[in-house]
Amino acid sequence: MAVHCSWMLVAKSLFLSLLLLQGLGRTGGVAERGKWTYLADSSKKNVIFTFKKTLFSNTTIYLNLEEDNCTVPVMLQINWYLRSSHCHNEFFDVPDDEKMAVRYLNNQDSEITEGRSGQYIYHQYKAVECKPHWTGTELTMKDFDKPKMLKELKILMSPVDDTQTKVAVKSKRDAESDVAVKSKRDAESDVSNKESQDESKAQEEKKEASNPNDKDPKKEDKKTTKALSSDQKKYAVAQAWEDAPYLFIVQINDLSSQELKTPKRWSVKLKVWMSGPYQYLSATDWPLMMFYMIMCIVYVFYGVLWLTLSACYWRDLLRIHFWIGGVILLGMVEKAVFYAEFQNIRSEGVPVQGAVVFAEILSAVKRTLARVLVIIASLGYGIVKPRLGALLHRVVGVGLLYLLFSLVEGILRVKSEKLDSSNLMCRIVLAFIDSCIVWWISFLFFHQSVTPS
Predict the structure, then answer these.
(1) Which residues sit opposite 249 in a β-bridge?
(2) Contact (CB, 8 A) for 334 and 367
(3) How far is CA 5 from the centre of its chain?
(4) Cβ atoms of 122 and 148 closer than 8 Å
(5) What is the C-alpha R_g of the chain?
(6) Measuring CA to CA, which residue among 190, 195, 109 is closest to residue 152?
(7) What does the alpha-carbon distance between residue 436 and residue 433 come to, in Å, rounded to a whole number?
(8) 388 and 71 in contact (C-beta within 8 Å)?
(9) What angle do CA 86, 87, 91 make, to 5 degrees?
C-alpha cells in the first residue's frame, strides 16, 4: 500500500508539471520566411511589393529580376526602399497593402508616428531594358549605401486654436547646412587618406623592387577573401545595420507605357531573399527555435522517466497512467514538428505547407487531453471509481468544447499575421473554460476534504 501511494504521488507531481508546460511553446503565428518569389506584369503601371522581416545586423538582402515574358523590349524603372524601426508593431501591425507602401515612400526621411525612430535607405536605378534572356545582374550593388537617420517628429500645440500639428525637428536650412559641412569634412578626410595611401603604396613598391622574390602571404589571403565576398555579393543590394524589424519595398515602373497609347505586354519574376548569420532565420525566430529544441529534450526526458517508473511499478499501473504517457508522446511530437519547421525555414527560407497547422492540431489535442485527465483524476475515475456515471457527459462536453475552440484559435493564429476579433474571442472562451475547469477541480477537492471518511 505504501508503494502504491508513493507511485501515485510521483505520478501526480509529474503530471502536474506536465500540465504547467501546456501553455508554453505557443507562437504568435508562422515563422518569418526568408525567400519570396512574385510575378510582376504589365497589368499595372506602378507595381509595388512589400517585405517585412526582423533581421540580425549584417544580414544581406538580395534582389533579382528575371525575364519571364519580354518578347518586346520594355524600359523599366526599378527603385527599392529599406527602413528599420525601433518599434516592432510599426511594420507588423499594419496591413500589408499598396497604400501602406505608398505612405512610407511618401515619407521616406521622416517618422510616420512620433517616437518610432529608425534609419532608411532609398536607391533608384537607372532605367533598365527588359528583353529576352535578361537576368537582372545590373541590380547588384558593389558598394552598399549607408543608412540615414529618420527625421524626428514632435507634436506642437498651436496657441490660437490648440490644434495638433506634426513638424520636423530639423528645418530644411539646418539639414542643408549639416549636409554641406559634412561633405566638406568628408572631402578633406578623403584627400588626407588618399595622400597617406599614395605614400604607403610607394613604400610597398620600393620594397617589392628591392626583394622581388619575396611574397606577402597576407596579400594572397586578402585576394582570396575578396574573390569569395564578390561571389557572395551577387544580386546583393543592401545590408542590415542593426538588429531590428525592417520594411523592404520594391517599386517597378513601366516607362514605355507612358509614351504609348497601347502599353506593351511584359512580365518579370521578382525574387527577394535575406540571408544572415543564421541563414534565412529571423532574429525573432532564432530564440523560438532554441526554445522548441529545449522543450523537445524536456519531453524526451519526461518520456524516459515515465517509462522507467512504469516499468518499476508495472503491477500498480492504472488506465490513467497510459493516458498520461500519451500526453507526453503528443508533446514530444508537437515540439519536434515545430523545431523541424524552424530548421526548414533556416535552411530553405520557405515554410512547409501544413506543418505548422499539424503541430497546432497536436497541441490542441494534447492540451485538451491533459485537462480531461486532470478532471477525471480529480473525480477519482480509474483510482477509486470504476465509472463516472452521469458526470461522463459533462467531462466529454467540456473536452470537446475546449478542443473545438483550441483548434479554431490555433489555425486562426497561424493564418493571420495579427490578432483579430475572432482570434481574441477564441482566446477569451478558452480562458473562461480554463477558469471553469479550475473552479470545478477546486470544488471537488473542497468537497472531498469536508466529507467525512
Answers:
(1) 50, 81
(2) no
(3) 48
(4) no
(5) 31
(6) 109
(7) 5
(8) no
(9) 115
Residue 83: helix, strand or coil by DSSP? strand
Amino acid at residue number 236: A
Report the C-alpha gap between 143 and 293 in whole angstroms: 38
Tell me how far the alpha carbon of residue 381 is from its chain's centroid. 44
What is the band of 73 on the pLDDT scale with cuts at 50, 70, 90?
confident
C-alpha cell at 255: 516607362
Higher-pLDDT residue of 67, 26: 67
The helix/strand/coil state of 392 is helix
Distance, in Å, from the CA atom of 433 to the CA atom of 402, rounded to the nearest integer, reads 7
203 vs 88, 193, 199, 209, CA distance in Å? 52, 15, 6, 10
pTM comes to 0.73
Give the chain's count of helices (H) and strands (E): 11, 12
Average pLDDT estimate for 266-270: 86
Q: Quick one: which of 88, 36, 61, 28 has its CA closest to 351?
A: 36
Task: Decide: helix, strand or coil at residue 84.
Answer: strand
Residue with cell 536605378: 125
pLDDT of residue 175: 46
Residue 247: which of 417, 106, 96 has the closest Cα? 96
Across the chain, mean pLDDT equals 76
Asked if 130 and 73 touch (Cβ cutoff 8 Å), the reply is yes
Residue 150 CA to residue 112 CA, distance in Å, equals 10
SS3 365: helix
In angstroms, the Cα distances linking 319 to 307, 311, 377, 400, 445 are 15, 15, 11, 21, 22
C-alpha cell at 427: 482566446
Three-state DSSP class for residue 142: coil
Q: What is the pLDDT of residue 183?
A: 52
Q: Report the distance separating Cα 157 and Cα 151, nearest Å.
A: 19
Distance CA 327, CA 21 (A): 11
Residue 226 sits at φ, ψ, to 5 deg, of -65, -40
**Which residue type does 332 have?**
M
Cα within 13 Å of Cα(121), Cβ side: 17
Q: Where are the beta strands (DSSP E) in 265-366?
A: 267-275
pLDDT digits (tens, 9 = 90+) for 276-319: 999 899 998 999 999 999 999 999 998 999 999 889 988 888 88
Spatial CA neighbour of 18 closest among 317, 287, 318, 326 = 326
